[in-house]
Structure formats: structure tokens, C-alpha cells
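Entry 14. Ran structure prediction on the chain below.
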Amino acid sequence: MTNQLSFIAEQNWRTEWQYNINKRMMIRNRVEVTWYDKRNPDYLQDFLTYVDFFYKPAQKLFSGNVRFQYFETGDYNSRVYVYENDVPYSFSIPFYYNKGVRYYLNLSCNLKKLFRTDKVNKLNIELWLRWAQSIYNGVNSIGTGLYEVNGNKKSEIKLQLLIGW
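Output, C-alpha cells:
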């Protein structure tokens, strides 16, 4: 007996807009709807929306961004992938299924600007922090195996320090 591939149609609609408040602040929003296996009478409709806020002042000590997100999918087969801003040299493209919210905060700090002496001026010290949390509705655990988390909340934190001359 051999397994055969089956083709399942998927339709996507995505709208994204971005507004620069000024040179230092920006807002971005996305709304995404997916119809999975629409020929089936029990087809799935997925929904995801998020709002990003960016703050990046010129020549300032701190910058960062924050995201608030809501997602609702039919099941694991119709999960939705979304790119997320992360610390440098790292990336995050998690997938979402079921129903829930997610938010994260990225902060960066250029510590070189704290020091004003010539000896330290050649030294570059930058610090990045990322904190994220997902909250799922109506579940008692998230993930499987070694990645299983008891409860309906999953949090993560990253800290990165760069020292250069």
C-alpha cells in the first residue's frame, strides 16, 4: 500500500499598512485571513492581526519595538507563520494555531553613549533584550515532548551583549 499526495487548496488575503509618525516613531499593522480546504463543507478560516510600534531615535541611548497580536486558526494543519523582529544575528518565524494572543518587546541600548572619554570612545558596547509571551485560550499545555509547557502561557527571553573595538 502506498500513500498518495492530496492537494488541498488554500486562499490567503493580507493587508498591511505602515505609518511614520515622525522620524523616530512608526506604526505597522497587518490583518491576514486564510481559507484552508474551502471545497470541504467543514473548511477552516484563520485570522491573524498585529500592531507593531517602533521607536528609534537618532543618536539616543535606547531604541525598541513592541508587538501586540491576536490569532485564531482552525487547527494545526491551518497554522499561520509570522516573521518577528528579534535580536541581531537571530530570527524568529513562529507559527500559531488555536486561539490566543502574543506580545513581545525588543529593546536595544548603545552603552558607548554613556561614556564620553577618548579611551572608551573606541570601545563599542551594545545590549539587546527580547521578551515575548504567548497566551492560548482553552488549553492546559502547549507543545509536545521536551518542548511541552504546562499551562496556557509560554514565555521566552533573550539577552545579547556585543563588545567590539
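Residues 35 and 104 are 27 Å apart (CA to CA). Will compare against last week's run tomorrow.
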